[in-house]
Structure to design on (40 residues):
């Protein structure tokens, strides 16, 4: 049951990010990570 709720939450977060930034969750994370690496 917990996995279903977790997936729904992830889908909701993904949808919100897509609306705000135009990026899917994994793309947004990859962008943040590359920014972090560039700042080091």
């Amino acid at each position: 049951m917990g996995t279903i709720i977790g997936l729904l939450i992830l889908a909701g977060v993904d949808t919100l990010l897509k609306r705000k930034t135009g990026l899917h969750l994994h793309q947004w994370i990859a962008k943040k990570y590359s920014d972090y690496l560039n700042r080091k």
User: Anything to note?
Assistant: The chain is about 90% helix and 0% strand. Helices lie at 2-21, 25-39. The two ends are 40 Å apart (CA to CA). The first helix runs from residue 2 to 21.
